[in-house]
Amino acid sequence: MTMIANARMYALNDTVAAAWRRLFEWIAADAEVSLDVIAYPPPHPLGDLWRRDDLGCALMCGFPWATWRDPIKRPVPLAIPVPSPANFRDRPIYWTDIVVRADSHIASVADLAGTRFAFTVEDSQSGYQAPRRFFADRAQATRGRLFSAVLGPLITPRRVVEAVLADDADAGPLDAWWHALLRRHEPEVAARLRTVAVTQPTPIPLVVSAAKMPEPQRRRIIAALERMADVAQLSDVRDALLLKRFEHADAFDYRSLLASAREADALGYYRLQ
For 231-257, how does the pLDDT look when each residue is reduced to its tens digit (9 = 90+)? Predict the structure, then answer.
């Protein structure tokens, strides 16, 4: 049975997408599992991808995984990535960088009050939920409304960048690993942005498969994911992806995302506004 593989969440351009393809092809060969690497470009909703019964190996945001309503059909965690940049502290974590244009007058979190804020989609941890929690306390002081306008859903971090640089938005959220990849592969674009705030670290998106994947295949893919860190022929792939290794996924850790969302709810900040 041929399954599909996808890394759209972190395939920010053709170079990075090609590195993901090489990694998935190696995993397929090493695990002796047939994986069809698909692009699945935006605006196709990622939720539809994660619900596919033939999902073999894909990156999935932790918030929709933690809030999945049907535990029987919920994608099964295979592993979690550990990014290689030093500020990830050799841990499977990430956070949200709140970015503005490099030449913006905005210099601090306080300056974001009354600005136009962009977002990706509401069930994204980095693109919506993390900023919602980050701004919830501050929004209380302004009676629940912090921004003059909220722009979205823009679907992808790329479109958030484009909105900020085009002056359609004053600020927006970027997944820290995605942002690191942007600095690595498109430094000229990254240089036009400036980070004014960062949210608290949370568990990073998971690598998952469909619940219906046969257990023997799943185990072989997990083993391949865990081996890839020591494979010499993948050194350039790991470098391109800023990826150090994959670790065992502990589903318990992702409960913290729900707790964070409930904290924002308790403060009355149910939506970015």
Answer: 999 999 999 999 999 999 988 899 999
